[in-house]
Amino acid sequence: MVNGVRNATGLASVQRSHFSYSFFCQVAEAVLTSQLKAHQEKPNFVIKIPKGTRDLSPQHMVVREKILDLVISCFKRHGAKGMDTPAFELKDFDIAGQFDPMIPDAECLKIICEILSGLQLGDFLIKVNDRRIVDGMFAACGVPESKFRAICSSIDKLDKMAWKDVRHEMVAKKGLAPEVADRIGDYVQCHGGVSLVEQMFQDPRLSQNKQALEGLEDLKLLFEYLTLFGIAEKISFDLSLARGLDYYTGVIYEAVLLQTPTQAGEEPLNVGSVAAGGRYDGLVGMFDPKGHKVPCVGLSIGVERIFYIVEQRMKTKGEKVRTTETQVFVATPQKNFLQERLKLITELWDAGIKAEMLYKNNPKLLTQLHYCESTGIPLVVIIGEQELKEGIIKIRSVASREEVAIKRENLVAEIQKRLSES
Q: Which residues contact 42 (CB under 8 A, 6 or more apart)?
């Protein structure tokens, strides 16, 4: 068994290389321009950031990292091992190997449910179908085999277009007979749970097609496992789901967010699917010189789309994002206390507490407190002449502005106690 988290272990290096490249472009442009000026020549090129990438602010990086951390921790919870690949927008989980039917497929759907629930993006639904059912449906409806892929790509547009427009495309642009298109329409407008799977077993057309029956048998078994996983209500057997990629060979799925009524000031977000995947048993063998077949099933999480959704919602609600994880700020109300602050912050760092201070010899107390409020640091420890003389430290809660004095030797224990309670 091979479980993979593509780009999980290589995440930091990918992000660093993007930012390094961005910085390199700026430096290179300046150097080259200055060199060309010396020869009184105009540059005939412009160095740009690669398409499909963008620089992220510290606030955006915090949000993005939280999303990625949740996705990757879920993958690891399901036994994934890291693989370093140059993917920027997707986080993938794949299971390869010979296993009994539908067990790994059901786990992939469980993983999608865990991730989307954890991200708290709102209600969602995972549409499920099987490429064997799709092809069997086409054959049963009278679609010539040479048109399977073309008609499949039309059906794939049903999440964006009305059936009448898809029907028009199939008939007018792809030459499908109108009666054949109407038969397809009877199927692709059907969606439901395991009861629809049972219904399709009795269908006079599909029940005569071997491929379709194999797909239906697997979906029936899949729903049994999904029920045991407690996620069957999140799954919809949707005959319109086609996933027009040729390499899918069995179960296919796509997760979509369900539109909720738009709140005042919000614009509706039409982002399409946020996760997708399926079984692709023939793909690995295409790259094997010996043609060995390796059964595979996997999923992809659309991190960029999810990031966009979260970003827009935060913007609408005016939410602020902390760009650091600092827990304690070391402050002083007096001049010439840099050495004491350095001793104090070293004590906190050595205890594993995330702490910082201003890089100034004599900062004003008000400036230090304003910094804590603007950055969301929860606690301030204050040391001055009086505190030093009495062997105490003041701890200030930034939110309530309440201060208490404790003995210097109890500082670390008190900070840790407060952080554990917050």
A: 36
The C-alpha angle with vertex 418 and arms to 417 and 422, in degrees rounded to 5, equals: 120
Q: In 3D, which of 325, 319, 340 has the Cα closest to residue 384? A: 340
Sign of CA dihedral 204, 209, 213, 216: negative
Residue 395 has φ and ψ, to the nearest 5°, of -110, 125
C-alpha Rg value of the chain to the nearest Å: 29
Encode pLDDT of 253-289 as tens digits: 999 998 654 544 455 555 678 999 999 987 876 676 7
* Contact in structure between 206 and 137 (CB atoms under 8 Å): yes
Residues near 338 by beta carbon (within 8 Å), at least 6 away in sequence: 361, 362
Computed from CA positions of residues 156, 162, 163, 165, in that sequence, does the dihedral angle turn out positive or negative? negative
Q: Is the confidence at residue 321, as pLDDT, over 50?
A: yes
Q: For 290-410, where are the E strands, in sequence order?
A: 296-302, 328-331, 355-356, 379-382, 392-397, 403-407
Question: Both tokens of residue 3?
Answer: 């479980």
Cβ atoms of residues 212 and 250 within 8 Å: no
Per-residue pLDDT tens over the stretch 88-101: 446 889 998 889 99
Round to whole Å and give the CA distance between 161 and 184. 15
Tokens of 297: 């099933």
| Amino acid code (one letter) for 348 | L
CB 116 within 8 A of CB 235: no
CA distance 158 to 154: 8
The single-letter code of the amino acid at 88 is F
Q: Is residue 110 a contact partner of residue 100, using CB atoms and an 8 Å limit?
A: no
Whole-structure pTM value: 0.71
